[in-house]
Amino acid sequence: MPTLVQVKELKQLEPIKTGVADVLVTFDVLGLIFPDSLVQIYASGRSDTSLTPADLKDEVELQVNEHVGYSTILHLQAGAFLFLHFCPRTTTNGVLDPDIDAQPFDSFCTVIPLTTRAVLPPSPGALAAPVITSIEPHQATLHNEGSIVVRWSASSEFDKYHFMFTDSFPPPKSEVGFHEIEIEAPRSHGFSFRIQPAFARRTYTFKVQGCKESEVFPDECSAFSPDSTATMPKNTNSLREFLRFSNVQLNPGIRSLGAAAFSAGIRGMMRL
Fold first, then answer.
1. Per the CATH hierarchy, to which homologous superfamily does domain 131-231 belong?
2. Distance in angstroms (rounded) separating the CA atoms of residues 112 and 262
3. For residues 51, 55, 61 and 66, what is the CA-based torsion angle, rounded to 10 degrees?
4. Structure letter (DSSP) for residue 126
5. Which residues pair with 27 in a beta bridge?
6. Could you tell me which of 96, 7, 10, 99 has the C-alpha nearest to residue 53?
7. Which of 17, 21, 61, 180 has the greatest CB tally within 10 Å of its CB?
């Protein structure tokens, strides 16, 4: 079994700052750990691009007989949507090996999306716009289409939200071309919305506005939050990983899923 990283926790530390986000990461290591091996942690704006030295944020040395409880603090850009790549690396004579089991090392990276928070000063005399705090892409499974869960928080108390999104890229300069959802959430300081279906490799743009309702006067609304953008990662090519995401165990074989599951072929079932 190749060495793999299982991320246990990603937590942005207080206080939230404007420029740099301090993020605590904790992970375990599965499989065989070779002497002088390590885990490199990269941060990139996309999940499917080649990693560069500039993306490297930290290196964590591994101990041969220790598989759990590794941690470090990453210093990342605040207010950004990133993909963190946790990449096991082996060495030969002190030099990093470019391949593992005759495959490029980045084939074995664990990729986790993360949105870092930042302090956004409110406009004087106006309601502060909600802040999108996390964007979570979820790949398609055997039972569900792919989706993106967008969460936001608000310093003001709102009664409803106007959530807008589009898969046009670059996004339209006006509201025309955006899908708009009105969400009732009385006396709330945030909410969330799931976009489904969301398709692999498409780029989605989101923004949200908060409003206070009045029985007498027109609604008092904030400005929209700044546009936040995320690209859905490509679906896994691994049948084993696809079935793990789907919480399915094969017993005794793939035909146990039933003919309807793979009537369009394996690639069709995996949305490839």
1. Immunoglobulins (2.60.40.10)
2. 28
3. -70
4. S
5. 7, 70
6. 96
7. 21
CATH topology (fold) of 4-115? Immunoglobulin-like (2.60.40)
CATH 2.60.40.10 in the chain: give the residue spans: 131-231
| Cβ count within 10 A of residue 12 | 20
**Cβ proximity of 97 and 91 under 8 Å:** yes
b/e 37-74 (16+ beta carbons within 10 angstroms → b): bbbbbbbbeebeeebeeebebeebebeeeebeebeeeb
- Three-state SS annotation for 47-72: CCCCCCHHHEEEEEECCCCCCCCEEE
Pairing of strands 99-100, 103-104: antiparallel
Q: Per-residue confidence at 47, pLDDT binned at 50, 70, 90?
A: confident
Per-residue tokens: 223: 């400005």
| DSSP tag of 237 | S
Tell me the one-letter amino acid at 197: P
Higher pLDDT, 271 or 64: 64
Confidence of residue 263 (pLDDT cuts 50, 70, 90): low
